């Protein structure tokens, strides 16, 4: 019999996968599979498992069903080509090297890590001792402190240290060992640096090293001297500005997440030297009246649309919809300085005061922006729909186009609603009405498809000229928005279908369905509202839509939407397709925003190459590393989302800092063992109410009912409750608000109180059996 999996290490030989005396060729138990995956994440695909356990024929089918069950129960997660245990690191991960261990070895942590999974695991970085790098070619990458790397992850053999070790695939970013903080004056002309990161360290800044920094400035510093005693001493490198300014708040997020925001000279030079595209390998579509419909303040325009009635007698009342997308692949070629910088960024990042673009303005706002009246290169898809909204065919084209008009969503909608202006009046009959007619046709197909229809209004922050918050508002959701959204979705579907038909590898946008464990949490919660959710692993978006419909126009509408949202997996990029649960689509790729998303650029290159459209196609080298690229850009997308969210949190906290002591109307948006999260709908801000401040009763947490209720009084708070709170503390740099509850708890349903009584009886029996005293409650 072979060795136990935990002793195999990283040999290239197939592991002996018989840790519990499982006969070779017999289907292993659930426990054996889970242990094997934990010990061998690099061999945790269905194919590798079948090979390791010698499974063939019917046994492989049984293995497939067993793995699916484990996924649905939340015991496993599918990530690109492999399976992982929930909370485990995927086989390829982006790491930030943050410290060294006692032996001086580098330690990294995942660049992005979900808040609800606790502290990110430490990873010991294995530096290669071989002169050859990946595949034996070139020098092995050598990383240092502050670097961001793409790494292959392995379980650690030594259980006394970090849980993982990593081999460096490549260095993504050589980051300066700089810190950011707030400069505070100190006696004698010196200063102190107050860190913006909770894990940061306060530093001393000598008078000669503070430059022009003033009290309250946000500054970037480097460590000038470390001693055995006392605080580190630092030198001011740059002054971002007053910490009270909005500019400083977005810079905090940029720095904290390591978002590249300054283009290197070689990248700027390549962009500046770019020449307009030629007609080579292009169809001349400059007479097609494509128009752009975007936000009023948009600076780049990467999509244009046009629609007409299908003249074919075989498709009565059908429509033809054309979507044209900026041809970024013509200008950004594989492995060029522009390409390497775009991959390092992964996507553009949007803050209330600025955009950190993926590509320089010369490309994004000029050569690739589909400006009104100017010749611009594009990739276009011409889609034909029947009158019931079924797509019956599509073709791709590499074109030269000229936008007939630049409209805002509000302009286009107003024209359709009977209030055209001087610009939209002439466009109403020939362009806008056919677009809306096509949208009506496509809506029939969408209604039949039944994507997940969550009602979660998106709040926007409007800034004053000085960069501070003016107001927070929910912009109206117009048909113009939905029209563009549906046309872009169908263009994305067409791209995936074409590339699959050409047997061309690509990066999909995938979204797995909720696990059985998450479904059960939602099911238990809905049961407390008298709403049933059918059991079974084969859930579809439509199942959730029926639940959402039952909650419409009830006091529970918002909380039901939030619970359904929390049950969903996170969409990611992957060269392995599992479909998109939320959109209820089996084939879906991002094609429509190559100016701001690297995934779309890869799809454009794949189309150019597989359809013989000329220069700028995907290369064999790119095809070979799509797994790595998907891992990077998925991480960078999460990085951007976190930075944008934290910036808004800090802005709102700064906006409310002068209103400590005031009362606000809010809604319970989260219930935990330690307290309540309350959202202020007028501001889109979340704050925390510690359980210790709720009152003198002993409050018990009930996950199924999403409630905290008093043991003696039966009064408590549930998810979705409307409450009045007082702002007790605002910490702008942390983006944190702390509230005190003003509203009295309401009487909890009988089921909640019964649950608590049963739980207390069980706890009492357990303590008696163990001979321990009851713990003191939070009062």
Can you give keywords for this protein?
five-stranded mixed β-barrel; globular; alpha+beta; Ribonuclease R; OB fold (Dihydrolipoamide Acetyltransferase, E2P); nuclease; 17 helices; 6 domains; 34 strands; disordered N terminus; 779 residues
* Distinct helical segment count: 17
Largest sheet, spatial ordering of strands: 3-4-5-7-6
| Helical content band | 25-40%
The poorly predicted ranges are 1-21, 130-137, 769-779
User: What is the overall pLDDT average?
Assistant: 84
SS-based class = alpha+beta
| Domain module tally | 6
Number of strands: 34
What is the terminal-to-terminal distance? 59 Å
Overall form: globular
Q: In percent, how much strand structure appears in the residues?
A: 25-35%
Biggest sheet layout: 5 strands, mixed, barrel
CA radius of gyration = 28 Å
GO molecular function: exoribonuclease II activity; RNA binding
Protein name: Ribonuclease R
Catalytic activity: Exonucleolytic cleavage in the 3'- to 5'-direction to yield nucleoside 5'-phosphates
Keywords: Cytoplasm, Exonuclease, Hydrolase, Nuclease, RNA-binding
């Amino acid at each position: 019999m072979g060795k136990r999996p935990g002793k195999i290490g990283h040999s290239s030989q197939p592991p002996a996968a018989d840790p519990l005396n499982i006969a070779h060729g017999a289907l292993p138990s659930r426990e054996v599979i889970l242990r094997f995956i934990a010990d061998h994440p690099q061999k945790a695909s269905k194919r590798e498992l079948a090979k390791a356990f010698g499974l063939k024929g019917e046994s492989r089918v049984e293995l497939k069903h067993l793995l699916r069950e484990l996924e649905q129960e939340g015991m496993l997660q599918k990530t690109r080509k492999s399976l992982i245990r929930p909370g485990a690191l995927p086989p390829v991960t982006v790491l930030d090297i943050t410290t060294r261990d006692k032996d001086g070895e580098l330690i990294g942590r995942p660049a992005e890590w979900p808040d609800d999974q606790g502290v990110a695991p430490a990873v010991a970085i294995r530096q290669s001792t071989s002169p050859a790098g990946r595949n034996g070619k070139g020098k092995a990458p050598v990383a240092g402190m502050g670097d961001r790397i793409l790494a292959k992850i392995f379980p650690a053999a030594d259980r006394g240290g970090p849980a993982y070790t990593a081999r460096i695939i490549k260095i993504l970013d050589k980051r300066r060992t700089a810190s950011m903080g707030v400069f505070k004056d100190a006696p004698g002309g010196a200063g102190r640096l107050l860190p913006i990161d909770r894990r940061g360290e306060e530093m001393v800044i000598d008078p000669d090293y503070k430059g022009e920094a003033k009290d309250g400035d946000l500054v970037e510093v480097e460590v000038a001297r470390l001693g055995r005693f006392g605080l580190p001493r630092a030198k001011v490198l740059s002054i971002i500005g007053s910490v009270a300014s909005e500019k400083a708040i977005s810079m905090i997020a940029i720095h904290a997440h390591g978002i590249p925001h300054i283009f290197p000279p070689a990248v700027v030079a390549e962009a500046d030297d770019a020449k307009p595209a030629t007609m080579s390998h292009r169809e001349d579509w400059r007479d097609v009246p494509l128009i752009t419909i975007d936000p009023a303040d948009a600076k780049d325009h990467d999509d244009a649309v046009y629609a007409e009635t299908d003249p074919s007698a075989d498709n009565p009342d059908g429509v033809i919809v054309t979507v044209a997308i900026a041809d970024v692949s013509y200008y950004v070629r594989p492995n060029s300085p522009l390409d390497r910088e775009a991959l390092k960024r992964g996507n553009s990042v949007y803050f209330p005061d600025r955009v950190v673009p993926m590509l320089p303005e010369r490309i994004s706002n000029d050569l690739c922006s589909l400006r009104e009246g100017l010749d611009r290169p594009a990739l276009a898809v011409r889609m034909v729909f029947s009158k019931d909204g079924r797509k019956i065919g599509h073709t791709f084209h590499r074109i030269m186009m000229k936008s007939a008009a630049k409209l805002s969503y509000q302009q286009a909608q107003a024209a359709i609603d009977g209030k055209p202006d001087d610009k939209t009046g002439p466009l109403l009959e020939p362009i806008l009405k056919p677009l809306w007619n096509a949208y009506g046709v496509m809506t029939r197909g969408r209604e039949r498809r039944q994507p997940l229809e969550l009602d979660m209004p998106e709040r926007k922050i409007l800034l004053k000229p000085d960069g501070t918050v003016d107001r927070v508002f929910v912009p109206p959701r117009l048909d113009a928005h939905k029209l563009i959204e549906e046309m872009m979705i169908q263009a994305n579907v067409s791209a995936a279908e074409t590339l699959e038909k050409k047997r061309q590898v690509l990066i999909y946008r995938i979204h797995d369905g909720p696990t059985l464990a998450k479904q059960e949490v939602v099911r238990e919660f809905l049961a407390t509202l008298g709403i049933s959710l059918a059991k079974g692993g084969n859930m579809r978006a439509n199942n959730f839509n029926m639940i959402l419909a039952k909650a419409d126009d009830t006091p529970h509408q918002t909380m039901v939407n939030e619970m359904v949202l929390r049950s969903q997996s996170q969409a990611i990029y992957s060269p392995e397709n599992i479909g998109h649960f939320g959109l209820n689509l089996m084939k879906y790729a991002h094609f429509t925003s190559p100016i701001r998303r690297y995934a779309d650029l890869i799809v454009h290159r794949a189309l150019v190459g597989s359809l013989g459209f000329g220069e700028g196609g995907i290369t064999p080298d790119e095809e070979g590393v799509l797994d790595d690229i998907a891992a990077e850009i998925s991480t960078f997308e999460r990085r951007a989302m976190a930075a944008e969210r934290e910036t808004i949190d800090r802005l709102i906290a700064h906006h409310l800092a002068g209103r400590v002591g005031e009362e606000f109307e809010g809604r319970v948006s989260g219930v935990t063992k330690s307290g309540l999260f309350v959202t202020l709908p007028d501001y889109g801000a979340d704050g925390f109410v510690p359980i210790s401040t709720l009152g003198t009763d002993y409050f018990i947490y009930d996950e199924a009912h999403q409630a905290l209720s008093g043991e003696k009084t039966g009064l408590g708070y549930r998810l979705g409750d409307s409450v009045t709170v007082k702002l007790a503390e605002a910490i702008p740099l942390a983006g944190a608000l702390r509230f005190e509850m003003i509203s009295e708890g309401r009487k909890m349903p009988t089921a909640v109180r019964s649950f608590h009584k049963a739980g207390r009886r069980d706890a009492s029996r357990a303590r008696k059996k163990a001979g321990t005293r009851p713990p003191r409650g939070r009062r």
